[in-house]
Task: structure prediction
Amino acid sequence: MQNMFKGCGKMKKLLSVVAVALFVFALSVCGLAQAAEKVGVSMPTQSLQRWNQDGSNMKLQLEKAGYVVDLQFGGDNDVPTQVAQLENMISGGCKVLVISAIDGSALTTVLADAKAQGIAVIAYDRLIMNTDAVSYYATFDNFKVGSLQGQFIRDHLKLDSEAGPFNIELFTGDPGDNNINFFFGGAMEILKPYIDSGKLVVLSDQKAKDQCATPGWSTEAAQTRMENLITSRGYGPNGTKLHAVYSSNDSVANGITNALKDAGYAAQNFPILTGQDCDVTSMKNILSGTQSMSIFKDTRTLANQVVKMVDALLKGTKPEVNDTTTYDNGTGIIPSYLCDPVFCTKDNYKELLIDSGYYTEAQLAQ
Ligand code: BGC
Result:
């Protein structure tokens, strides 16, 4: 009798071990089912350092979170390539699309397809315009980027205490990128009063955003425009004094730097020149004393935030946002998460870029 009970106990134990094993197995099957969910990540170009970093950060972090990732770069800023890649992501079963648009207004049709199939869309860094298919937007505080750049010029020219006048030329980015409204707008909010009062002078008279745009954020296009300004206005270390050049980002600043160096400017007499992204080329220029500053946007933070958004969307919870008033894409306000940009110079780059593991000193060596 006792043996029978003993046998029964053993049986119970065995059954509960089997039940636990089955439960664990079921859980892992569910886990695998979730892991199989596919996320499309569409970046604009591979020719700029930042988008390579953004793309690989996103892929790495999404894979760590258990997703399958289809990462594509739109050729070299080629809109039809980006559209075709998005079509493939939609037909290939992606459940969420994370998109940094080449032209923010060129994705209306393809994203209507995504919406029709219940695919969620997150605009990454750049807002996608004129489509109600965008659910969320994650970016940096782009207006603050422009304000920081404008403040840098104001403070370094001491516009509030020096008599001036000071000569400045203005450069922003691609006209199809909604961000330039914020970069240029933020900078002009600071600089325009000084331009209006005559303390800052734009000799070329090219002050409107469209006149200052740089198609494709191209280094070559910026270089050509700066060369033309140098020739037509006679800027040079021994010619007309050029005190500052406002540039919205580093790829544009690099073209301006090339033109200024060719005109004979060097570290000791270089105009104040702004940038954004802390690209390696620009950081080297900052350390050697030509470009004055850049804006550090830690793309690891942005990628991390977007991965959290993807995860929330796929788990049916609400993604975290911190701005529900600023970004209207023409169909209404898109709930946004804004990361914080900070300015970077040769005085604080160590703490921002090296100590945080963003770069090694060796990467920034001349
Ligand atoms: C980004 C900048 C970048 C620029 C050119 C903008 O939309 O916000 O960080 O420098 O595009 O790629």
